């Protein structure tokens, strides 16, 4: 089994200028992740959990450190030094990200959002239409909502749409920031079914969770973040 990701001595801080305060979000974080494995991350609010995902996705840049990703297209690449063009490609074809919050595109329906994700992978419009409907149905989004604008959706509906839009690409690496937040138990079951299927098909995953029961039997290792540091993972 080959290594897909290596996080090496990442440091990240944020400055709150009006308070003249510097917050150390990550303090020498290192771990590795093999292909097809699932790492879970737990920790209190402010412990650096979301920051590590945003660094891997390159939304943030660190003060120092490396994130070595074994890309299908580019080979071994440090995401912290990758060009914007390379990152755009990786986000489109190899690395997915599910946030708690849906960035609503204006005048774009729920159906069109998911279809666009499929089209970005080079699939045909017919395939995109079928795949989008299957994903929306799986996450129990009412068909009456499919051709509506998500700005009118509840928090849970937006989150389910966000997950559907990300998973239809079947990325090599999928980053999940609280994918079960604001979901009822039935919706959590649907999410777990999809994550289990993706993992069986070879997707590598990193997920932030508060629901420890949800993680049981799904994650291969769990890291506990505390004040910018992480405790060595344990099997679950």
Automatic annotation (TrEMBL):
This is Alpha-D-ribose 1-methylphosphonate 5-triphosphate synthase subunit PhnL. Signal peptide: none annotated. Its EC number is 2.7.8.37. PROSITE patterns: ABC_TRANSPORTER_2. It is an enzyme of class 2 (transferase). It comes from Siminovitchia thermophila. InterPro entries: AAA+_ATPase, ABC_transporter-like_ATP-bd, P-loop_NTPase. Keywords: ATP-binding, Nucleotide-binding, Transferase. GO terms for molecular function: alpha-D-ribose 1-methylphosphonate 5-triphosphate synthase activity. The keyword Transferase applies. SUPFAM superfamilies: P-loop containing nucleoside triphosphate hydrolases. Residues 5-236 form the ABC transporter domain. Gene3D superfamilies: P-loop containing nucleotide triphosphate hydrolases. Belongs to the ABC transporter superfamily. It comes from the Bacteria. It holds the Pfam family ABC_tran.
